[in-house]
Design goal:
This protein is α/β, with parallel strands linked by helices and 251 residues long. The chain is 45% helix and 16% strand. The protein has a single domain, classed as Rossmann fold, CATH 3.40.50. Strands 3-2-1-4-5-6-7 form a 7-stranded parallel β-sheet, sandwiched between helices. Strand 1, helix 1 and strand 2 form a beta-alpha-beta unit. Helix 1 runs parallel beside helix 2. The chain is globular and about 50 Å long. The protein starts with 6 loop residues before the first strand and ends in a 7-residue tail after the last strand.
């Protein structure tokens, strides 16, 4: 198995892409800490992992809270040992409010989960990874990391920032055995975009139809890429922005 004896933390693992990654990692031998702000959803992911013969535990966490992040990593080390893998997947879409309409509270909320959260997680996990000689961090960014018009102003700004954060940490910590990469999902069938996919005439749906794949992606397709980046098969990949979007962003 590709991740045998590895310890992985996956944030936002209560649904969608995070749940798919948690299940994929567990199938490949990792002991997975399912971190989420919704207890029932996180516990359901743990149940699915265990029913399939994997090992997982749940921790309730708000990734924008420094205290919660510290508790998450402390509990992980106590239960499983130091983490080898971190997937920063927790994120929210926010509104599509214009610059004139967005509130400071909305801006802060999106930034708190989508950018502050990964920063807090990486800052807390890095010492643990360095103590064991290396580690692997995967940040789930977005197609909105590359261009405007893919989301609201706060979401697009946060995802651009997450890609810059990925590259900077990779540059600084790669020589110390820490690999850091980003996955940029396109339109994936998750609860976050269900309301859009339910509107066939929506511009996003029209562009999906015109894209090479001609359909939205599935969370499991993102999870397969995450597994590759988490495994030794991708040992020469550092600071990359890996699109998995069915060709949505090539035109």
């Amino acid at each position: 198995m590709k991740l045998e004896d590895k310890v992985a933390i996956v944030t936002g693992a209560g649904s969608g892409i995070g749940r798919a990654i948690a299940r994929e990692f567990a199938r490949e031998g990792a002991r997975v800490v399912v971190a989420d702000c919704v207890q029932d959803a996180g516990e359901e992911t743990v149940k699915l992992v265990k029913n399939a013969g994997g090992e997982a535990r749940f921790t309730l966490v708000d990734v924008s809270s420094e205290d919660d992040v510290d508790r998450l990593v402390t509990e992980t080390v106590a239960a499983y040992g130091r983490p080898h893998l971190l997937v920063n997947n927790a994120g929210i879409g926010g509104s599509l409010a214009t610059m004139a309409d967005i509130t400071v509270a909305e801006w802060d909320k999106v930034m708190g989960i989508n950018l502050r959260g990964p920063f807090l997680m990486v800052r807390r996990v890095l010492p643990e990874m360095l103590q064991q000689g290396g580690g692997n961090i995967i940040n789930i960014a977005s197609m909105a990391s590359l261009a405007a018009g893919r989301g609201g102003i706060a979401y697009t700004t946060a995802k651009h920032g997450l890609l810059g954060f990925t590259r900077q940490v990779s540059f600084l910590r790669g020589p110390q055995g820490i690999r850091v990469n980003a996955i940029l999902p396109g339109p994936i069938e998750t609860p976050m975009i269900q309301r859009i996919l339910a509107l066939p005439q929506h511009p996003v749906c029209q562009k999906i139809k015109a894209s090479p794949a001609g359909r939205p992606g599935q969370p499991e397709e993102v999870a397969k890429l995450a597994l590759f980046l988490a495994s030794d098969e991708s040992s020469f990949i550092h600071g990359a922005a890996c699109c998995v979007d069915g060709g949505y962003t090539i035109f």
